[in-house]
Amino acid sequence: MKFGIRTPSLKRSISARTTGRAKRSIKKALIPGYGKKGRGWITNPKKAAYNKIYRKTTISFWDLFK
Fold first, then answer.
1. Domain residues of the chain, as ranges?
2. For each of the chain's 66 residues, which pLDDT tens digit applies?
3. Which of 3, 15, 22, 64 falls between 20 and 30 A from 30, CA-CA?
């Protein structure tokens, strides 16, 4: 588990803003319940628990400038 500042990745940042956005909008239209709050705990509780802890113990590089 990582603690502290996450290392920024320009490639992942661009990918999250473009490709993922299109895929999410298509999935949201086709799959009922996709993207709703709490869905991760139903589909994969181990991953959801890890992500919750990860988000609380790390900060983004860009949060330093806010």
1. 4-65
2. 778 888 888 898 888 888 778 888 899 999 988 888 888 898 899 999 999 999 899 998 888 887
3. 15
Task: Take residue 10 and report the two structure tokens written for it.
Answer: 């320009």
For residues 58 and 45, give the distance between their C-alpha atoms in angstroms, rounded to a whole number.
20
pTM of the full predicted structure? 0.65
Give which of 38, 37, 17, 36 is closest to 28, Cα–Cα.
36
Give the C-alpha separation, 49 to 46, whole Å.
5
d(CA 1, CA 50): 8
13, 65 contact by CB (below 8 A): no
Angle of CA points 13, 1, 19, to nearest 5°: 20
